[in-house]
UniProtKB/TrEMBL annotation:
Cell compartments where the protein resides: Membrane
Amino acid transporter transmembrane domain segment(s): 1-394
Domain of life: Eukaryota
Protein name: Amino acid transporter transmembrane domain-containing protein
Topology of the protein relative to the lipid bilayer: Multi-pass membrane protein
TM spans (from-to): 24-46, 92-113, 125-146, 152-170, 191-212, 232-250, 271-292, 338-357, 377-399
A single cellular component GO annotation: vacuolar membrane
PANTHER family from the UniProt entry: AMINO ACID TRANSPORTER, AMINO ACID TRANSPORTER TRANSMEMBRANE DOMAIN-CONTAINING PROTEIN
Swiss-Prot/TrEMBL keywords: Membrane, Transmembrane, Transmembrane helix
Pfam families from the UniProt entry: Aa_trans
Record GO terms (molecular function): L-amino acid transmembrane transporter activity
Amino acid sequence: MHLVKGYVGTGVFSMGDALKNSGLIFGPITILLIGMVCLHCCHLLVNSAYLLNTHFKFERVPDYADTAKLSFALVAPDFPALGFVAKLIVNAFLIMAQMGFCACYFVFISWNVRELLKVYKCPLDIHWIIAIVVIPIWLTCLIRTLKLLAKISMLANIILLTSIVIVLYYSFTKPTSHYPAGLMIPSISKFAIFFGQSVYAFEGIGLVLILYNEMSSPELFNETYGVLNIGLHIVTILYLCFGVVTYVQFGDAIKETVTLNLDTKEILGQTVLVLISIGVSFSFSLQLYVAIDIICPKILLWLGPFEYPVLVELWLRTALVITTFVMAEAIPRLQIMLSFVGSFLSCALIVIFPAIIDITTSYSFKKLTKCLLLKDFLIVIFGIIGMLAGTYESLALLANEIGK
């Protein structure tokens, strides 16, 4: 359940919009393909971490960044700096990805709040709403206790699940008023946007090794019918079904998040907007925690000692919230933000890096065969093509948006 909760986030509400960009033939097939590749790459990362752990004999398997560092350090012992560079790159992408997720959360919350305010004849520009939303989010981000954050996150997960159930109920019970053009062959530009949106939804690989370490029987995590396989199969099926159901219900009128398609004249529609805004706000601080956990110790080590280290951490938290706020103000379009973060950052973390780590680790342990090398090479190429195409089209959309 922890794995499923870690993967399912705001991206699920944009799966219908993603299918609008891909159609009902190519879209579902590609979602299944991305899910399979994501699952396989998670296995590659876990296997690499396990092999490195058996070699270096740590008490726990290393995290994502340390796995990259040890893998490159082992394959090139004469160039120890290579391992540090690998760790630096992975950490940089993890930080940027978490910041990107938080910026997406800002935009997601603000559009839902805007829709709710329109019901009560209080229309506000999206930029003003983002500026208002930043205050309560900043206050939640000042919470430093992980146990309290975990409780808040649990509440957020319950709210998120409730919202998903309500949207599905709404989609099944309301008559379809907009029929999808859906069987069309998508253009390359739209398909690239769809790819970024879908990969964004599947980002959660940083959680995999953490959960592996927390299991009382870690050997069950990576088995055929283990936690990883079952969890990601559930996530993939949920994304696919939710996307198809919402797209069939709202057709090409579906918006960047399906919550904006709900009838706000009804209590049910308003309830979802309130719930999802609160739930995502609660999730924000835990998402930011990953970046803080990487950056803060480095600042305290390199620039310290400080007389008031807690105050330094609070200033860091404030700076990160302001950074994500500026990102959201600069790009207040959810589709563009999701696609860019998914294509540029998530694609590297989910697809490209695990395959490269698998190559270097397998080589060090004399397990690198021609078939394995070819398979990992194809995964890297798949990731690079998706990364470049999705990033380019996202930036093109952004340029078009700025030019309006």
